[in-house]
Specification:
With 277 residues, the protein is an alpha+beta fold. It folds into 2 domains: 141 residues, no CATH class; 104 residues, no CATH class. 46% of the residues lie in helices and 16% in strands. The protein is built from 9 helices and 8 strands. A 6-stranded mixed sheet has the order 2-1-8-7-4-3, sandwiched between helices. A two-stranded antiparallel ribbon has the order 5-6. Helix 1 runs antiparallel to helix 2 and helix 2 packs across helix 3.
Length: 277
């Protein structure tokens, strides 16, 4: 099965930034992005033929890109995006993207390059039962204005509050928040070789926050596929409404945790680029 939405782009944002900031080698960054055995391709233009992702990251570094920001938008919450509208729509349809950060000047022509939002598309290959997935990141124009990204502490507290509120709301509806079958299905979803590993300098608080938020999103994904105990359209709508703030808080927590502003404000100069296996 493909890597869940949010985890794929979070890994690229974290490890791509680590490479661009000389905190990880190109080989390590590519290995961590593709660690679920998904080949990744990259093209800075929507219609150009893609190259391997390592070549794309090296090109970004050559033209002065300093980091990658994560975007995990949802309808009504364009998290990590600042436009233009056609790019926002494409990222919203994909559910995730990374956005380049930094003034990019071509070493060959001296021309200034605009920021790019790298939007993924996933293509299945192979036979049923033995399928693989190839991810192609295609560049679209992006505004250089930094998006409104929550601070790490604020995002942590908001996720904890949203979990409490969702539990209370579902209890009042007479529904279990996380039924055993839902939790088991979510565990299987998370455990299909897609365990998260972030650069060590991200820090333990951000690392723990990402893991908790990914777990919440996995449970929400299963909950959407299984309407639980809701036996009427009204109860199903009430259940969905109760879970919407939790989905938003989880996405915002992941974006905050892998924000380059957070990562490199905390990175000690002597920190190793990656944790021991």
């Amino acid at each position: 099965m493909p890597v869940p939405i949010a985890l794929r782009a979070a890994l690229l944002a974290a490890w791509g930034t680590a490479y661009l900031q000389d905190a990880a080698s190109l080989e390590l960054a590519v290995a961590e992005v593709e660690r679920a055995d998904e080949p990744h391709l990259w093209t800075s233009e929507p219609t150009a033929s893609p190259d391997e992702i390592g070549e794309g990251l090296a090109e970004l570094k050559a033209v002065g890109v300093s980091a990658l920001r994560l975007s995990l938008p949802a309808p009504g919450d364009p998290l990590g995006l600042t436009g233009p509208p056609e790019t926002n729509l494409a990222v919203l349809a994909a559910g995730e993207a990374v956005v380049t950060v930094g003034h990019r000047v071509s070493p060959w022509s001296g021309a200034l390059h605009e920021e790019r939002a790298m939007v993924p598309s996933v293509t299945a290959f192979g036979t049923p039962g033995d399928q693989g997935y190839c991810v192609t990141w295609r560049g679209m124009a992006a505004a250089a204005t930094p998006p409104d990204v929550p601070a790490l502490g604020d995002a942590d507290r908001a996720l904890a509050a949203a979990m409490r509120e969702a539990t209370s709301a579902l209890t009042s509806l007479g529904q279990d928040t996380w039924r055993p079958s839902t939790a088991q299905a979510a565990a299987r979803l998370r455990g299909a070789g897609h365990d998260l590993r972030l650069p060590q300098h991200v820090g333990p608080r951000a690392d723990a926050l990402v893991r908790r938020a990914i777990q919440v999103l996995a449970m929400l994904e299963v909950a959407r596929a299984d309407d639980g105990d809701a036996v009427t359209a009204h109860r199903a709508h009430a259940r969905s409404t109760s879970l919407a703030p939790l989905d938003r808080a989880a996405r915002r927590a992941i974006v905050a945790a892998v924000s380059p502003d957070h990562q490199y404000a905390l990175r000690p100069s002597s920190a190793p680029a990656f944790p021991p296996r």
